[in-house]
């Protein structure tokens, strides 16, 4: 069955930027319909990995295989930290429409079929109420919805989102995660979503790509987020503590100045709800 | 004879103005203002060289705006496009100084090139100017969606297979064509006001991308028509009016936007 086949295979991918090795033999595959978290501290290479999957960055070795080839036609992408200029005359519906045909030549004509697609997409992400508003003047959470609609309107098989939960308050984070989970099921879509804090994803995510030191630990969440697996990844002893339904990853050396990715990312250490 | 000269002037000015409004829409959206300022200035020595050699000034303008594009895009490869633009401009202007010093009958022609003159237009070969202008108008319309998406976010555009680097160079090329056709009509110093004033006003006045582009073209046409009429009436250079009306359009656009905003705020609060 098609759903069972691998949609994305990252095969022993290494990436160096300006002579520095950022990713080191990262290797994993996502099966159809997976909802996967790409977890790592700031600078761990999440954006670099997503850009490599998109083909914007060429790996120094290894390769990325997208089922069915034709990479960009199959991937929807929501980049990190997009600043939509409020001076640009563009409504939410225009941005979503560009997701459909922004690469085409000529003026966007007001075809009824196009309008119907855009309306349906706006509705699906809950953006109907601000469809006619200028995108640059929307709130961060609203812009996020507009960008998700932009990425989804072509019904990609794989959706990559780079830190879509940053800059959102707790309620919007939960709303965005459940929106994405619902859309993934509805559109039978594979999702890879980067975030530095895995906790909001725990109810939704069924697999994880955990990045540290340029390497990745991947698999089902409960198989990866374990002390011995992450200790091997970080190259030092870390403890995984579950409290109040949250997961804390704590390095033993966090207090004595040892420089690890965990320590540089205080969210992993201080997570008192 | 007077009438036919006027008709030609109006035709070419109309085409040039519509193009400047349409291309200017993307200049403003993409934040290419400095290049839009530098390219016309950089074409100036081209016109001087052409008059020195006795060839059609349009050749000179096209050659030098082409050199400008190469300079900006090649020097700009390392990032910092403003510095690349400034460097290219300075090099071209240096040549301009040289060419001007070699020519001896420049004052009248130079003046027309700098500030634009209705009479300057009538002395041109109108057909090539119109053709160049129409080509850049057509290219911009054709590339509307990729250019728009790239202006919103180069990264989103890349994800829709619109390469950022090639888009930048292509647009600079379009800007160079637009500039070369517009310089003889409104002058080197004031092409800029036509590619900035009307589009800045237009983007404030509507939320629709295509609507804003058409409005920009409309405002640009009004500016140029009114400027030519006033120039004929008062005998002052077209450039004076183009600059003034362009700035006025922008100012009115800003005032309108502030007014709409404050009205919206009041509606929300009360
Ligand atoms: N073009 C580049 N040239 C050189 N180094 C780069 C380049 N882009 C990124 N890097 C480096 O690669 C490392 C990983 O960067 P990346 O942006 O992928 O991290 P990230 O996990 O997305 O971080 P964040 O959570 O802050 O978004 C960083 O140390 C960064 O400095
Ligand atoms: Mg990142």
Chain-wise SSE layout:
The complex is a heterodimer of chains A (273) and B (270).
Chain A (H helix, E strand, L loop, with lengths): L5 E12 L2 E12 L3 E5 L6 H9 L6 E6 L4 H4 E4 L13 H10 L10 H13 L15 H13 L5 E5 L7 H17 L3 E6 L11 E6 L2 E5 L1 H4 L2 H8 L3 E6 L2 E6 L9 H4 L1 H4 L4
Parallel strand pairs in A: 3-7, 3-8, 5-6, 6-7
Antiparallel strand pairs in A: 1-2, 1-4, 8-9, 10-11
Helix pairs in contact in A: 3-4, 3-5
Chain B lengths: L1 H29 L2 H21 L3 H19 L5 H22 L4 H9 L2 H5 L3 H17 L1 H9 L1 H6 L4 H23 L4 H15 L3 H26 L3 H32 L1
Helix pairs in contact in B: 1-7, 1-10, 1-11, 1-12, 2-3, 2-4, 2-10, 2-11, 3-4, 3-10, 5-10, 7-10, 11-12, 11-13, 12-13
The complex binds adenosine-5'-triphosphate and magnesium ion.
Magnesium ion binds next to α1 of chain A.
Detailed description of the structure:
The complex is a heterodimer of chains A (273) and B (270). Chain A has helices at residues 46-54, 71-74, 92-101, 112-124, 140-152, 170-186, 221-224, 227-234, 261-264, 266-269; strands at 6-17, 20-31, 35-39, 61-66, 75-78, 158-162, 190-195, 207-212, 215-219, 238-243, 246-251. Chain A is of the alpha/beta class and 273 residues long. Chain A has a domain at 87-153. In chain A, the strands form 3 sheets. A 6-stranded mixed β-sheet of chain A has the order 5-6-7-3-8-9, sandwiched between helices. Chain A has a 3-stranded antiparallel β-sheet with strand order 2-1-4, covered by helices on one side. The longest helix of chain A has 17 residues, at 170-186. Chain B is built from 13 helices and no strands. In chain B, helix 1 (2-30) runs antiparallel to helix 10 (164-186), helix 5 crosses helix 10 and helix 7 packs antiparallel against helix 10 (164-186). The longest helix of chain B has 32 residues, at 238-269. Chain B starts with a helix and ends with a helix. The A-B interface holds A 54, 56, 72, 75-77, 79, 82, 84-85, 87-91, 94-95, 98-99, 101-108, 132-134, 147, 150-151 and B 29, 141-146, 148-149, 151-153, 155-162, 202-204, 206-212. The structure holds adenosine-5'-triphosphate (ATP) and magnesium ion. Adenosine-5'-triphosphate (ATP) binds next to strand 2 and helix 1 of chain A.
